[in-house]
Amino acid sequence: MTRYVFPPLPIPTLPVVGSADLFPVHRIYCVGRNFADHAVEMGHDPNKEPPFFFQKNPDTLVPSGATIPFPKMTQDLHHEIEMVVALKSGGEDIPVEKALDCVFGYAVGLDLTRRDLQGEAKKLGRPWETGKAFEDGAPCSAIVPAESIGHPAAGRIFLNVNGALKQQGDLNQMIWKVPEMIATLSTLFRLAPGDLIFAGTPAGVGQLKKGDRLDGGVEGVGALTLTLG
């Protein structure tokens, strides 16, 4: 019988549309500046850099419909609406043409960002964790299995804040497509079942305040709502 020094924390999970089963989350990877218009608004040339990645912690996930406290230590919290890719298998050095075989399904996520802390870290050449990997920083909808919807390569992605449209784009505008993200990530990490990939956000990211209500979605995938307490 295994004994622990203290009870282990629960495994982070997401619901699965059409099933009572839960999806156990292993790691969360995020693709940076994967829409050209967002790269430009952040002051970068989208034609000059290969894909790059950062991570959020699995226990920062919160379900759609939640009300979360406004994050600590920030005066500049930003929204970033994204499609999320959920993996059922993984490995290393996965060929692009085999990458979609690893996908279990898709969801809608928010990469909440403490932009002021991220900006300070960038100036000092430090990691981004304080700006990205904080409590409740990864709201995510239920996962829709790929066997139900296929592998979306086009479709509207949008976010409203208090009923006003703030972000809008199309999945076909992603610089690095889902198979390329998976293949590239697998050269850097050993991917595993339960991994999530936040696939990048379109332009229009902006500041949030206490009391804001967010609703967004990805055409053919699903919807997400969130309230900042």
Briefly characterize the structure.
Helices cover 15% and strands 32% of the residues. It has 229 residues and is α+β, with helices and mostly antiparallel strands. The protein has a single domain (17-228), classed as Fumarylacetoacetate hydrolase, domain 2, CATH 3.90.850.
Topology record:
Layout: E1 13-15, E2 22-24, E3 28-31, H1 36-41, E4 53-56, E5 61-63, E6 66-68, E7 77-78, E8 81-87, E9 103-110, E10 113-114, H2 115-124, H3 129-132, E11 138-140, E12 144-145, H4 146-149, E13 156-161, E14 164-170, H5 178-188, E15 196-198, E16 213-218, E17 222-228
Parallel strand pairs: 3-15, 5-11, 6-17
Antiparallel strand pairs: 1-2, 3-4, 7-10, 8-9, 8-15, 9-12, 13-14, 13-16, 16-17
Describe this structure in words.
By secondary structure, this protein is α+β, with helices and mostly antiparallel strands. The protein has a single domain (17-228), classed as Fumarylacetoacetate hydrolase, domain 2, CATH 3.90.850.10. It is built from 5 helices and 17 strands. Strand 13 (156-161) and strand 14 form a beta hairpin. The longest helix has 11 residues, at 178-188. It is globular. The model has no long low-confidence stretch (mean pLDDT 94).
